[in-house]
Amino acid sequence: MRYRLDVVATGVVDVVGFAGGWLFDRAMAGWDVTVLVADHPDPRPLQILGARVLDLEDVLATMESRPRPQALAAAADLFGCDARVRQGVLQALDHGVTEVTLWGEDWPAELDESVGLVQHRLSMAAQIFKSQALAAAAVPHGSIGHTETFRSGLLAWPSVAADLVPAG
Q1: Residue 54: other Cβ atoms inside 10 A
Q2: Beta bridge pairs of residue 115
Q3: Residue 165: its pLDDT value, please?
Q4: 84 in helix, strand or coil?
Q5: Structural contact between residues 122 and 33, judged by C-beta atoms closer than 8 angstroms
Q6: Rounded to whole angstroms, how far apart are CA atoms 9 and 66?
Q7: How many angstroms separate the CA atoms of 127 and 143, rounded?
Q8: What is the pLDDT of residue 159?
Q9: What pLDDT does residue 157 have?
Q10: Using CA atoms, how far apart are residues 12 and 38, in angstroms rounded to an integer?
Q11: pTM confidence score
């Protein structure tokens, strides 16, 4: 059985820009990475990163029948505007058995106590594939950074992957 990472976001560009390198590295480590997006006119950028793309609305409608992933990642802005995503993230944080990771510019104040800053150091391959995914999404970009920064919930036990380390 492979570890599963479900990623929830509004669009492909957001996912690739904020978390593309981390998703690539997880996929290359053998994780099943599924990105659930509301706007996905072209899934190719996420496919370049090794992720499968599903429609957010379809998955949210059948969420109860899906097995719980080992890790859940979400855009912070989607947490703030979609009650279903908010509820799913809060439940995962409360249960403490799913690694919860969020990214974004604007941060919900209610999560300040339950999440901390973490970073993922991108492999050289992740930097290259993220660059290609951004190009496929027609996003102008300079050099790809060596790290991606997130906020992650603290688990009752160590993460199933040692790729997220406290930022400091």
Answers
A1: 15
A2: 153
A3: 76
A4: helix
A5: no
A6: 18
A7: 9
A8: 55
A9: 47
A10: 9
A11: 0.89
Q: What is the mean pLDDT of each run of 10 residues along the chain (168 residues)?
A: 91 94 97 90 94 90 82 90 87 83 83 82 97 94 91 62 69
| Stretch (H or E) spanning 135 | helix 124-136
Asked if 31 contacts 23 with a C-beta cutoff of 8 angstroms, the reply is no
pLDDT at 162: 61
- Looking at residue 62, its amino acid is T
Q: Measured on CA atoms in the order 129, 132, 138, 143, is the torsion positive or negative?
A: positive
Taking phi over 0 as left and psi of -120 to 50 as alpha, with beta for the rest, 30 belongs to left
Residues 6+ apart with CB under 8 A from 159: 99
Instruction: Read off the tokens for 19.
Output: 């978390």
90 Cβ contact partners less than 8 Å away, ≥ 6 residues apart: none
